[in-house]
Amino acid sequence: MSKIKAVDFANYVDEQKKKLVQHCLDHGLEASNSDSLSSVVNKELELVNENEVGNFKVEFYNIDASQYAPPQFVASGESVTLPSTNPSYDSDYLEFVEWRADGNMNNVTQDLICLPFYRTKYDSEIQERPTYLVCYFDSTHLSPTIHYYYANQNVYVDWGDGSEEEQVTSSFSHTYAQEGKYVIRIRGTSYMIGGNNQGGIFTTYDYANNCLLAVYMGENAEITVGYTFYQGRKLEVVTLLDNITTLSTRCFDQCAALKTLIIPPQTTGIGSNAFNKLDCLKYMIPPKVQCAWNYSNTLATSLLDRIDLSMYTLGHSSSSSYDEFVIPWGVKKIVYPQAERLKLFGQSNFAPDEIDLTNVSSFQMNSGFPAGRYKIKFGENTQGTLNTYSSASTTIYIENFCLPAGVVAPTSGGQI
Question: Could you tell me the end-to-end alpha-carbon distance of the chain, in angstroms, rounded to an integer?
Fold first, then answer.
């Protein structure tokens, strides 16, 4: 790893202080006096060290979003050094496979988030990797019914309470004798769990809301039909194997406790609102192939620091309509998906520091963007109107200002 010279580091800190002061002022973070503003700046710079300057930060987290290893600082073009020990999570059911990142770990060209990829353990008795549903059933939720579509009748369920495994041919029900945490095992040659828009995995949303804690998908399971994990508000951990190629409509909608999400690398289709209202999502690793994200698109989370959606494509069915995309709270950098017509919505009193529209052919910058200074990166042929629907008092400053011929200033309201 390359080392930064002390004089270069000193110059870097001085320059960062100037930029941070200007950023605070541009975004309305006004201090009552220069000393308090200086304290804000110095607090931010406490996190900066010599290794960070000129290098990329690589972080390692477990699937519950807890930090697994100290961050590394890797020079451009170098490889990530993986932790010396492998992580473990719910080891009775899961085995570690490899680390996955939101970028290239063998030729680092950006900051990276690394998450461990797990799969369900191979059960030698039944000779397959089953699906496990980890649930807590309280005294008012002791009779769950699991909904699934099946390709054949070779599907079996073990309810995890000592009762015998049973063969099932349609939605299957069970009554527990007492409340507690249970691990339900589902196995078969081919099956699709969920798919009932009346309750997702369960036939009523009440069970999804209150009981589902974790889902570990087996090798023969699919989730191609809609609402699979919908309203799983206590669902904290999901592992999806690489056989998954489609995430259904509203697949993770309102999974408010989900913290990390690895999209299988060969995923080619994502249904509308699949990532809506993920209040606790901190880290998400995108697929590695071109992935279609259908129609109404929302990525609602307050904890993502950055998100690169460049592998996704948006395509509205009407040539006269725009795909609508709301910027998640807290995101500092966002690379937008590939889209023919995209409508951008900001959040009140918040917008990211850096907006990348390289992949967008035509756009409208709509309401919600507060006055401030933004870095906006356009493609050579991007067309659109900046700040069309903001109020006349709003002023947007664009750093490195260079508009393509097809991008125009607002005709009414707002300034640039």
Answer: 42
In terms of DSSP bridges, do strands 360-365 and 338-345 run parallel, antiparallel, or are they unpaired? parallel
User: How far, in Å, CA of 100 to CA of 238, rounded?
Assistant: 15
Residue 140 has pLDDT above 70, yes or no: yes
Q: What is d(CA 354, CA 334) in angstroms, rounded to the nearest whole number?
A: 7
Rounded distance between C-alpha atoms, residue 382 and residue 361, angstroms: 5
Which residues, including other chains, have CB under 8 Å from residue 218's CB and lie 6 or more apart? 120, 128, 129, 130, 131, 132, 186, 187, 241
pLDDT digits (tens, 9 = 90+) for 269-326: 888 888 888 888 889 998 888 888 765 556 766 677 777 788 888 765 455 566 666 6
Find, among 134, 136, 137, 135, the residue nearest to 120 by Cα. Answer: 134
Cβ neighbours, 10 Å, residue 23: 16
Task: Annotate 250-306 with DSSP letters as a single string.
Answer: TSSTT-TT--EEE--TT--EE-TTTBTT-TT--EEEPPSS-EEE-SS--B--S--SE
Mean pLDDT, rounded, for 378-396: 58
Residue 351 CA to residue 374 CA, distance in Å, equals: 8
* Range 382-405 average pLDDT: 53
Whether pTM exceeds 0.85: no
Q: Take residue 347 and report the two structure tokens written for it.
A: 């959040």
